[in-house]
Amino acid sequence: MTLKLTGVQGKILSVDGDMVKIIKVGGIFASQREKTIPIQNISSIEVKKPGVLINGFIQLSIAGGVARESSYTWTGGVNDALKDENSVVFVGDDNYQLALQIKTDIESKMARTAPSAFAGGSVADELLKFKGLLDAGLLTQDEFDSIKKRLLGASATVTKVEEISKPIEKPKQVVVTYCVKCKAMNNASDGKCFRCEEPLPV
Description:
The chain is of the alpha+beta class. It folds into three domains: 3-112, PH-domain like, CATH 2.30.29; 123-165; 172-202, no CATH class. It contains five helices and nine strands, in the order ββββββαβααααββ. It has helices at residues 78-83, 93-112, 123-135, 141-155, 160-165, and strands at residues 3-6, 11-16, 19-24, 33-38, 42-48, 56-62, 87-90, 177-178, 185-186. It has a four-stranded antiparallel beta sheet with strand order 1-2-3-4, covered by helices on one side. The protein has a three-stranded antiparallel beta sheet with strand order 5-6-7. A two-stranded antiparallel sheet has the order 8-9. 21% of the residues are buried.
């Protein structure tokens, strides 16, 4: 079943199988553009309900892409969504309901296509990698939570035989130190605060 949302600015978002297609209809001075995104590359989806004076939008965040946090602006992020090639701005409650249906459909497919927990290392390694992206501001908290949910869901599919055959590893000791200057929590081994570069107390 193909789901299709027609938005403003001549943009159409459709979901067919494990692919999302965003089409920008051409006009007098521009030709039609199509962008296809595999669902496995999507890290999160945001849907904003339209209001009386403000349009709604559906926005896809791509793994490794730039995180946008504009929910506290007076437009609620609509101006940013208008400029974003991975967003479709729409009006009307019918389109809002369709956008929610698309979000649910994509998220269920994201859970099905979650990477194997042991394809590129352990789930803990993957979570630490994405936590680093969150701390660096490259992922929003919602994107991190979505990825964490997918990774932890994928780890639940590991069979008991695989779990038994894995050697037991001794946990690493992590020393957490608080920076005196900026009060950031650190576990840096180089002795400097990751945020303000001040030396950490010993």
